[in-house]
Design brief:
The chain is mainly α. The chain has one domain. It has 13 helices and no strands. Pfam families: VCA0040-like. This is DUF368 domain-containing protein.
Amino acid sequence: MRNIIRGVVMGITDLIPGISGGTIAMVLGFYHELVEAINGLFSKNWRKHVLFLAPLLLGIGIALLAFSRIIEWLIANHSLPLFFFFNGLILGIIPFLLREANFKKTFRLTHYSLMVLAALLVVATGFLREEDMEVIWTNLSFVQYIYLFFAGWLASSAMILPGISGSLIFLLLGVYPTVINSISNLNISVLAIIGIGIVIGLVLTSRLIQFLFLRFSTSTFAAMIGLVLGSLIIIFPGIPQTIPYGILCVVLFFIGAFLAYMLGKSEHS
């Protein structure tokens, strides 16, 4: 039951382009156990790891089905304040990542340079993207299905990284509304392609992530923080046209930042 609840919390956060499921796993104290379970799926103790992961996946599935329609409605009707809230979430998790990296003692000029390069990479990727953030793909072509497969692959890597949300990757790649719409309407063909990409990505990428954290922890954190900073620029939705709407957007931005900051701070309490 505990892992089902953990999965529900992870699922809710993975729907939102702000805090990753990996961050939640770290805050709740089972991040390394999660990565170990994913890496151990093809070991002789695979049954133990399946029993650990199955209730987590059940909880994530429950959360995705229960909350995807709400997110889809907000995107369609109130995207500006929603994305201000997302920006707040993203900004608020940065102090958590800096503390995890112990940046005051570990960061050198090379790490700050890596952080800037990672941020510029995200910005460049976002500007190269032609699709609007609110476009939902219909009647998908073969190329779009392939694109969704690799989007799922990349998003799965982000899902298990503390700080980078899989939904943020979907957003940067221009497929976030399509993914949310497919979940809320149970579009099996789209979900299957994305799901295959996510599963393959988790299995193959989790070992790389574990290796990077073991061998290049500080550089990995620097790159992650840069990716998060760059995403703030890309998903900024624009300036509100009216003062009341602008006040709402600013309030939601600070609420998102506060929630993310408190969530990250709780890991150290």
